[in-house]
Amino acid sequence: MAKEQKLHKQHKALSNTIAHIALIIISIIWLFPFFGIIMQSFRSFETEFGGMVNYLIPKHFSLDSYKWLFSSDSQFFRWYGNTLTIAIFVAIGQTIFVLFVSYALSRMRFRGRKALMNFWLILGMFPGFLTMICLYFLLKQFGLTQEGAIPGLILISVASSGMGYYVCKGFFDTIPKSLDEAARIDGASRARIFFTMTIPLARPIIIYTALTAFMAPWCDYIFASYVAFGYSKSYNVAVALYRWVNTNDYQGYFTRFCAGGILVAVPVTILFMCLQKYYVEGVTGGAVKG
Q1: What is the pLDDT of residues 33-66, one digit of tens each?
Q2: Residue ranges in the chain modelled with pLDDT below 50
Q3: Phi, psi of 5 (to 5 degrees)
């Protein structure tokens, strides 16, 4: 028996070692592009025989790319502000809509409820870019393209956000309905139950919903480039950075592109590091029931 236990422990230790080695290798592969971007953002131009020489780790580190981003020659912080404005308003608007819709579908029973949920589920399976042409011409009629691209992007992102109720509704389903029933007996209205009881208990899913809503416009390129349509003052950072590396001076703008990418990643990284606990609780809590 003791020999079998020893063999079992050795087998388990070997399995754990192999798993850890595999995870380390995967992590290195996954982090390698980020390491490359960080290194290139500090690269200075090195010329040999009249040509540009690129190294993964720069021979001479420089802050020229970051200095250029802060200079008056760059519109980077205008684009950064555009992206931040869109992301904040979308995060607030989507969170409100998703919470309202999810609470209604979780707590209320009305005719057509299941049909509506199934219809939204099926509709959500179609990729959003299929409607880009229709949405563009609709926004154009209201002056929400090019100069008005920022409010247009906010409107489109918030308008259909209620369809993303799945995870949030699953979280609300885990909150005992007996709490609502007891409050109703005491004379509380639906609104008071929602704001004074459900919302405080739903902090993880609120943070999860806000984070996912914030990330979508922060990383959006396809629809943002379509709506801005060449009007540089309405670009977000994704569109602007792509335009930089899509110029004839690819080598000149590549290090600036990398530096801009680092600055774009900073706020998202900080948010996830600070709110990781609530993010995980929101995902796991919302996955319990559908």
Answers
A1: 888 888 888 887 554 334 445 567 777 788 888 8
A2: 47-52, 289-290
A3: -65, -40
